[in-house]
Amino acid sequence: MAAVIFGLFGKRPDRMAPVNALLARIVAASREPALYLEGRVPDDFEGRFEALTLHVFLVLRRLRELPAPAAEVAQDLVDANFSYLEIGFRQGGVSDVSVPKRMKKIGRSFYGRVGAYEEAFASGEPGALAAALGRNVSPQADAEALARHAHAAAAQLAPLDLDGILTADPIFPKFESSLSK
To answer: Based on the number of CB atoms within 10 Å of its own CB, is 133 exposed (0-12), middle (13-18) or buried (19 or more)?
Structure first.
């Protein structure tokens, strides 16, 4: 079903199938119960958006480091992510008139967070990512544990090539492993 939906707007389903499968694994990782229980990410739309954005960012960051056609895959992943979010709005009862406004706001939020997380990673400053996560996710979230998880996930993604990213399952370490460090 998702492959059909995501393949609708001119992209061939066979091209999108691996991207949709990747997005499904990213979504599954972003819904890991420990993120919400131990990581204290709020279990509401905003919290789930924050968890998804963090995980999508980590994959996009690795894809940006790889040679072509990784950039095309990254764009397809962003497109699939926004289609997924739009479907969530529609299934949640948001009116057709309101969806574009909400998507515009979501887009600004997504790209703002991607920029903040990239800046934090690039700074190399201890605590920069935790600070960015604390500002964006929620004041009650365990930003330090989320940052440890993000760094562990980035380390797990680092050796993967494009095929490895498209097939890795699981693609991220379990969040619980980030708590004890």
So the answer is: buried
